[in-house]
Specification:
This protein is of the alpha/beta class. The protein is about 30% helix and about 25% strand. The structure holds malonyl-coenzyme A and adenosine monophosphate.
Length: about 500
Amino acid sequence: MSASEIHLPAKGRFDPTANGVPCLTAAWSRHWRAAPDTPAIHDPDQGWLTRGDLDRETRVRAGRLAALGLTRGDRILLSAESSADLVLSYVAALRLGLVVLPTNTAYGPRELSHVIEDAGPLAAIVDDDAKRSAIAEFAPSLQLVTPPLEIPDGSPPALDSGPPESPALICYTSGTTGRPKGAVLSHANCLASAEGLRVAWRWTEADRLLLALPLFHMHGLGVGLHGTLYNGGTAVLYRGFRPDEILADIEARNATIFFGVPTMYHRLAGHPDAGSLAKLRLCVSGSAALPASLHEEIELVSGQRVLERYGMTETLMLVSNPHDAERRAGTVGFPLPGVELRLEGEPAEIQVRGPNVFEGYWQRPEANTDAFTDDGWFRTGDLGAIDEDGYVSIVGRAKELIISGGYNVYPREIEDVLRTHPDIDDVAVVGEADPEWGERVVAYAVTKGPVELDTVRASIGDALAPFKHPRALHRVEALPRNALGKVQKHRLSKGEVLPD
Ligand code: MLC
Ligand code: AMP
């Protein structure tokens, strides 16, 4: 069967907004009113917030945001570690109809200033003093507040009012070329994904999630936090990922589910208490490929069979191994409810459609033209295959992207910064396989003489978040190029490397 003949239709029509829920917070607040004394979110310092706390406190905070002059459709930037305060302020912003711009806490001024210039937020919630000072320098008109929102109260206008197609989030993601683009996700997109996962993963209010993923990417925010609030479940937040703590808390906190990136599973599998994973109802891996060998190793040491799924910032979750049937290592499973998937072209690209798929990039008409096919399918840039039983697997990427520990790193962005180094004449950045990180960032450079990795990293400074810094730097005589002058990156790792 040729790739273009493979088309997995969506299972059923899927529109969670059809039953009158106008937005995310209207869906979430139904649980708050039904059982206000029930625990909802656990913070390592503040303990449990109840559903009633969520309702009351987010109403107060929405009033404070309104008192800052923010109204529906205004953008607000977030840069903060996981905390109950971050959750409360995030939910308050959504209740007011603001559009949230989550940013990686590792971002420095260069990365943040791009998001601020591009999306034009009126306010930013930032937990780091130095970062607030830096932002105040380059964006003096931005109103800067901290996650507890200790600012004067105001009276909130109508809350939780939608409409479903209004944007909830703009998440910045880079591309092969050009500056990072803001993927605009509507309330309806987020609701559709949450509903698909509820059905597929049998997620209920009895579930307790150990949520050690950061809340600035789709995995932690759009899957972990949104799913918890949508299903009326509970989530235990962590500031950072420590295997000891997670494995001990499985029993101590009566947890039922854990979500992680493969690097987290690599560390958990190597821990003497890995067997505790077996006590969970469900362990999900995503954001990067879970090697089949690691999948098997986890089962060997713990008895837990991890469920691998596949998603993207632009689409939320797309494909998942089954909850109740075989979880096949090396595959990502079947399209989630509501998601249509096809393989197009040679090599076969995964293309998708469904109510979870975003409308487009913020003010980038040309990028939107490239992102969608003429007949309305979103091009994921991932290459796929479907086996005889219908399991989808990711077999490569059409886009130039490195995924390290679940974070996306775009070689072009690193190359642009490295080229400004006075001793680097030319450079190409690639991802090389790494047992812990999946891929690690490696630079091949034509230099004026010997150059040390540490000095190059120091010279990058905060122009790039530390997770984007090269972990190795190899000097080469010349970069291999094709007749059109394009660097042949696949030849680099095999090529001749100069001695230092
Ligand atoms: C941290 N470091 C990394 C890194 N994370 N380097 C490369 N890749 C990474 N992912 C570096 C830091 O810069 C620092 O370097 C050193 O490691 C220690 O920092 P740390 O903060 O203590 O790291 P650690 O706690 O070990 O973090 C590892 C991790 C984290 C795996 C817990 O990376 C993480 O939370 N990853 C999850 C990312 C995620 O949520 N992705 C979802 C994207 S959404 P130095 O040099 O300064 O010492 C998506 C859609 C979907 O993809 O399908 O889900
Ligand atoms: P992001 O832009 O951060 O949302 O990253 C999305 C990309 O992560 C996808 O396009 C895939 O390349 C990759 N990805 C997510 N989940 C998986 C998975 N289970 N296996 C392989 N790649 C994945």
